[in-house]
DNA sequence: GTAACTGTAACTATCTTAGTGACAATTAGG
DNA sequence: CCTAATTGTCACTAAGATAGTTACAGTTAC
């Protein structure tokens, strides 16, 4: 599996932006919540910004806020933006063409892999940042939004 | 996501063993089909052997063969044996407990992640090495088994 | 006895990732 | 205009994972 946590961090950041709704959040503020370095957050917000999910402003009083409604941001969109393409890596070197198995295994596996991956992506496609936000607020058992 | 190709290689090896049905295959033979080093194959066969999927014999005339029917080996079993546990890595450091979002994000995400992973695993659970073998043989458009 | 195997340890090269410091550019506000 | 706050981005490091490789002792068939 892609051994990176960028999807997790991106969803965390977007959920936080949803919770503070409208008030711009600095990379430093988000980084404290995620418990990482602000540069890591800025890198991810950069990708989300180019895709139109967030708007970011430099300078004093700057920061990032959502550019779309939380209910319009699907987790699948975020997942793909974070560079997650193939769930199952193929052979590092192409298999032997001199073998019945080597000749066809990649064709067969790519069908299987894509079916499995689609099943997973279908679940992510049915969930939005709003769902995450609501579940967090439900767990907190209060309608207030005092994130930090 | 799993960043290693061991699952692919394991399925390749098992499919090859299914195709040559009964005739023991050496790690060198399998490695030529996969296009890798025999030690890489032996490492994987070692795991499959401990799990009872293959039987391996050392010495001259040795090699590996399936210990179960191809139809009794599910791809999910192989997937898990290859060390694939969590599809979606969480934060590298635990998020801040001082933040509403940081406090609950992992609880919420672990539910979402497990749902998505289960959907993927359900597909793998419905497929066996026999399915792979049959698809390969179908592509080869011949009932003969001359793998190399 | 010899040749053909496996199992496994040890090592290397390569890649990916997260994290970090540094600094120019931008902006708000006095 | 000056200052403080903030982003974007580059360059680097440390750590970890992976595939590949060599080597060699142990096992087996003939």
What does this structure look like?
The structure is a homodimer of 148-residue chains. With 148 residues, chain A is mostly helical. Chain A has a domain at 6-83 and 128-140: Arc Repressor Mutant, subunit A. Chain A contains 6 helices and 2 strands; from the N terminus they run αααββααα. Chain A has a two-stranded antiparallel sheet with strand order 1-2. In chain A, α1 packs across α6 (129-140) and α2 (27-34) crosses α3 (38-50). Chains A and B meet through α1, α2, α5 and α6 of A and α1, α2, α5 and α6 of B. Chain A binds a DNA duplex (30 and 30 nucleotides) through residues 2-6, 26-28, 36-40, 42-43, 45-46, 56-64, 92-93.
Kindly summarize this structure in a few lines.
The structure is a homodimer of 148-residue chains. Chain A has helices at residues 6-19, 27-34, 38-50, 75-81, 100-125, 129-140, and strands at 54-57, 63-66. Chain A is mostly helical and 148 residues long.
**Number of DSSP strands of chain A?**
2
Beta fraction of chain A: 5-15%
Shape of chain A: elongated
Q: Give the class-level CATH name of the domain at 6-83 and 128-140 in chain A.
A: Mainly Alpha
State the largest interface.
A-B, 64 and 64 residues
- Number of DSSP helical runs of chain A: 6
Which CATH architecture of the domain at 6-83 and 128-140 in chain A? Orthogonal Bundle
Can you give the mean pLDDT of chain A? 94
**By helix and strand content of chain A, what is the structural category?**
mainly alpha
Ends distance of chain A: 33 Å
Rg of Cα set of chain A? 19 Å
CATH homologous group name of the domain at 6-83 and 128-140 in chain A: Winged helix-like DNA-binding domain superfamily/Winged helix DNA-binding domain
The name of the CATH topology of the domain at 6-83 and 128-140 in chain A is Arc Repressor Mutant, subunit A
Can you summarize the main beta sheet of chain A?
2 strands, antiparallel
Strands of the largest sheet of chain A, in order across it?
Answer: 1-2
Low-confidence stretches of chain A: none
Order of helices and strands of chain A: HHHEEHHH
Oligomer: homodimer
């Amino acid at each position: 599996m892609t051994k990176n946590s960028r999807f997790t961090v991106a969803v965390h950041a977007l959920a936080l932006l949803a919770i503070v709704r409208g008030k711009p959040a600095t990379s430093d503020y988000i980084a404290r919540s995620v418990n990482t370095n602000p540069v890591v957050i800025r890198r991810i917000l950069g990708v989300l910004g180019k895709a139109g999910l967030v708007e970011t402003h430099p300078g004093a009083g700057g920061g990032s806020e959502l550019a779309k409604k939380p209910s319009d941001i699907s987790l699948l969109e975020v997942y793909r933006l974070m560079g997650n393409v193939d769930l199952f890596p193929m052979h590092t070197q192409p298999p032997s063409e001199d073998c019945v198995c080597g000749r066809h295994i990649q064709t067969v596996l790519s069908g299987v892999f894509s079916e499995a991956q689609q099943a997973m992506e279908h679940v992510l496609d049915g969930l939005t940042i709003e769902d995450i936000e609501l579940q967090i607020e439900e767990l907190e058992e209060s309608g207030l939004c005092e994130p930090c």
